[in-house]
C-alpha cells in the first residue's frame, strides 16, 4: 500500500510496477490529468491545495476498505500548481481478478473526489473557479 500527497510529479511507471505481485491477477489504474477543455470552458491551469495530514488520513480510510478485501492499493494526489497535461492523481488497485480491480479502483477515485479534503482552483481563460465543474 502507498498513500501520498505530493508536490512532485507523479511517476506512474514506478507506481504501476509496485502493484505487480504474483498473488494478484489483475491491476487497474486510474490516472487523472489536467485537460484543456471541460465542455466549452478552456482551462489554463489548476491549483490543488489541501491539509495534508487530514487528506492522507481520509485516503487511508478509503484504502483500508479495499485492503480488507485482500487487495493492494496505491493512491497518490499531487498538489500545487499544475499545467495542462500534468498528472494530478494516480489510483491503482491490484486484486486476484480483474473485475475486483476495476470495481475497487472506481470506488477509490469516486470516494476520493467526494470525501478527501483536496480543493481545486481552476484558472480558465475568463475567470477563476473553486471546485471546477462537476466531473
UniProtKB/TrEMBL annotation:
Source domain of life: Bacteria
CDD domains recorded: MoaE
Gene3D superfamilies, per database record: Molybdopterin biosynthesis MoaE subunit
Protein name as catalogued: Molybdenum cofactor biosynthesis protein E
UniProt-listed GO biological process terms: Mo-molybdopterin cofactor biosynthetic process
Pfam family, one: MoaE
InterPro entries cross-referenced by the UniProt entry: MoaE_sf, Mopterin_biosynth_MoaE
Organism from which the protein derives: Companilactobacillus nodensis DSM 19682 = JCM 14932 = NBRC 107160
Lineage: Bacteria, Bacillati, Bacillota, Bacilli, Lactobacillales
Amino acid at each position: 500500500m502507498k498513500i501520498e500527497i505530493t508536490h512532485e510529479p507523479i511517476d506512474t511507471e514506478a507506481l504501476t510496477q509496485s502493484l505487480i505481485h504474483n498473488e494478484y491477477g489483475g491491476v487497474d489504474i486510474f490516472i487523472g490529468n489536467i485537460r484543456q477543455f471541460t465542455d466549452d470552458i478552456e482551462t489554463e491551469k489548476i491549483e490543488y491545495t489541501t491539509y495534508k495530514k487530514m487528506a492522507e488520513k481520509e485516503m487511508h480510510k478509503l484504502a483500508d476498505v479495499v485492503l480488507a478485501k485482500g487487495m493492494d492499493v496505491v493512491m497518490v494526489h499531487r498538489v500545487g500548481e499544475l499545467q495542462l497535461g500534468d498528472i494530478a492523481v494516480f489510483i491503482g488497485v491490484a486484486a486476484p481478478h480483474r473485475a475486483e480491480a476495476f470495481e475497487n479502483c472506481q470506488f477509490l477515485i469516486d470516494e476520493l473526489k467526494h470525501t478527501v479534503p483536496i480543493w481545486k482552483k481552476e484558472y480558465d481563460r475568463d475567470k477563476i473557479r473553486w471546485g471546477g465543474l462537476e466531473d
